[in-house]
Amino acid sequence: MFQQDNSLCHTSRPAQSPDMRPIENLWWIIKRSVSKHKVKNLEELKAVIQEKWDKITPQQCEMLVGNMPARIRALLRANGRKLNINMMM
After folding, report:
1. CB-based contacts of 19: which residues, under 8 Å, 6+ apart?
2. What InterPro entries does the database record attribute to this sequence (predicted)?
3. pLDDT band of 38, cuts 50, 70, 90
4. What is the pLDDT of residues 62-87, one digit of tens each?
5. In a domain, 83, yes or no
């Protein structure tokens, strides 16, 4: 059922919380690794990003997903404030 009466409970959106999305941690890993390279153009940047993406292991992905309970606890302790993404690695 679709309810459109502009009531806050029908129009509110969940807060953006990138620190609770494991993909953001993967991008942080890639960004940190790519920043060590001196790329000269967009094509080199794309190639380095692809190379780093291809080197992400299933174990890294499992670790990022597996530590979600710890992230949730940290977010609750922070009263919803943004978490330092580095502390979750």
Report:
1. 71, 75, 82, 83, 84, 85, 88
2. RNaseH_sf
3. very high
4. 998 998 888 888 888 888 677 665 54
5. yes
pTM for the whole thing?
0.61
Q: For residue 71, what are the contacts with CB-CB under 8 A and spacing of at least 6?
A: 19, 20, 83, 88
Q: Containing domain of residue 52, as a range?
A: 19-88
Q: Is residue 14, in this structure, part of any structural domain at all?
A: no
Provide the number of structural domains found in the chain: 1
Please indicate, yes or no, if residue 4 is contained in any of the structural domains: no
Residue 9 inside a domain? The answer is: no
d(CA 85, CA 37): 22
